[in-house]
Write a structure and sequence with these properties.
Blueprint (H helix, E strand, L loop, with lengths): L3 E4 L8 H15 L6 H4 L7 H11 L8 H19 L11 H10 L3 E4 L6 H7 L8 E2 L12 H10 L6 E5 L2 H9 L3 E5 L2 H4 L4 E3 L7 H8 L1
Parallel strand pairs: 1-2, 1-4, 2-3, 4-5, 5-6
Helix pairs in contact: 1-4, 3-4
The chain binds 6-O-phosphono-beta-D-glucopyranose and magnesium ion (MG).
Length: about 220
């Protein structure tokens, strides 16, 4: 019996995944590391510090930076990212998401957010969506996806068992996290990246509440 739907944020509710990419690309460029969109796929869903580590490894320079220097680099990227977030308005909720949230709530579903982003609450406020979600799990207390922690925390916050929840994700690490939490997974994106999803949709426009409910119930 499905009683809750738990959303990822970046790349599912809004296209902040692109802002993350732009901010990392700028920072990486400043320290002489080139990243492209293909490499960026493995940063999706991954925490700020773990993303930095992957970029430094990609450039073969992970050993050259102290923990303090890494913290400063991550902070620099976040400043750039937060500056890009100033562009965010309620119009940037991805197609289909508002209708999905409205229909799910009208049907009595609980709604949760399981984002790895420490900026999640700011983003939800900017999108005018905070009232549409019952519980936002705190990224600070969880191990990074693909660990199940953030999805388990969201289920707990909603007062439900994981088997009563569905997770929706755009990242491979996120689908793994949902499954590790014992939930069914909806993937938003392409089959090459998200082949492990139980239900795969190309984009959020295809995300219809009744269709998802019928698929899993
Ligand atoms: C995830 C993004 O939602 O949040 C990652 O997919 C990002 O790309 C992570 O690194 C952490 O975000 P923030 O805002 O805490 O740096
Ligand atoms: Mg995402």
């Amino acid at each position: 019996m499905i009683r809750a739907i738990i959303f990822d944020l970046d790349g599912v509710i809004t296209e902040t995944a692109e802002y993350h990419y732009q901010a990392w690309k700028q920072l990486a460029g400043e320290i002489g590391i080139a990243i492209d969109r293909q490499f960026n796929e493995c940063l999706k869903g991954v925490s700020r510090m773990d993303s930095l580590e992957l970029i430094l490894q990609h450039g073969g320079v992970a050993e050259q930076y102290s923990d303090e220097e890494k913290a400063a680099l991550a902070e620099r990227k976040n400043r750039q990212y937060v500056a890009l977030l100033q562009n965010l308005t309620p119009n940037q909720v991805l197609p289909g998401i508002r209708d999905f949230l409205r229909d799910a709530r009208a049907d009595g579903m609980k709604l949760g957010l399981a984002s790895a982003s420490k900026n999640a609450r700011t983003i939800m406020d900017a999108l005018d969506l905070t009232q549409s979600i019952d519980f936002i799990a705190d990224a600070a207390v969880a191990r990074s996806k693909p660990a199940p922690d953030i999805f388990l925390l969201a289920a707990e916050g909603l007062g439900l068992s994981p088997e009563n929840c569905i997770g929706i994700e755009d990242a491979a690490a996120g689908i793994k996290a949902i499954h590790a939490a014992g939930m069914k997974a909806v993937g938003i994106g392409d089959a090459a990246t998200l082949r492990e999803a139980d239900l795969l949709l190309n984009d959020t426009e295809k995300l219809n509440y009744n269709a998802v409910k019928n698929y899993f119930c």
